[in-house]
Amino acid sequence: MPRGQWSTSPRRAQLPPDWATLCAQARELWGTACYLCAHPGATDTDHVTPGADHRVTNLRPACGARCPHCRAEGRTPCHLAKSSREGGQAAQAIRPRRARPPEPHPGIRR
């Protein structure tokens, strides 16, 4: 059962049926070191460019929640941090902006 944000996200349903095969091919092509921090033994597969491009050339190994290096250093795993940052940027991009009236120039009297 997915937990956290995956539980309400449609993202998992958007992954191709051969996702496990694509992840294995990406690890075979790029190795098992995290492409973000270079620690060995990456457990997740990340899209380099956000979106639905599931080609192996757009997938790289990344530290997941079970990464012992991230835990030992007391930091958020690379994949989680990058996905969270991208999600925040996407949400901010669609958030409506508050329109402020332009301020008059301070040197012009009214």
**Largest β-sheet summary:** 2 strands, antiparallel
> Which spans of ≥5 residues are poorly predicted at pLDDT below 50?
none
Radius of gyration over C-alpha positions, nearest whole angstrom: 20 Å
Secondary structural class:
mainly alpha
Q: Going across the major beta sheet, what is the strand order?
A: 1-2
How confident overall, as mean pLDDT? Answer: 83
Beta-strand portion reads 5-15%
- Which descriptor suits the 3D outline? elongated
Structure description:
With 110 residues, this protein is mainly α. It has a domain at 13-87. The chain has helices at 11-14, 19-30, 68-73, 78-94, and strands spanning 44-47, 59-62. It has a two-stranded antiparallel sheet. It starts with 10 loop residues before the first helix and ends in a 16-residue tail after the last helix.
Q: How is this structure best summarized?
A:
The chain has four helices and two strands, in the order ααββαα. With 110 residues, the chain is mainly alpha-helical.
Topology:
Elements: H1 11-14, H2 19-30, E1 44-47, E2 59-62, H3 68-73, H4 78-94
Antiparallel strand pairs: 1-2
Name the features.
elongated; mainly alpha; 7% strand; 35% helix; two-stranded antiparallel ribbon; 110 residues
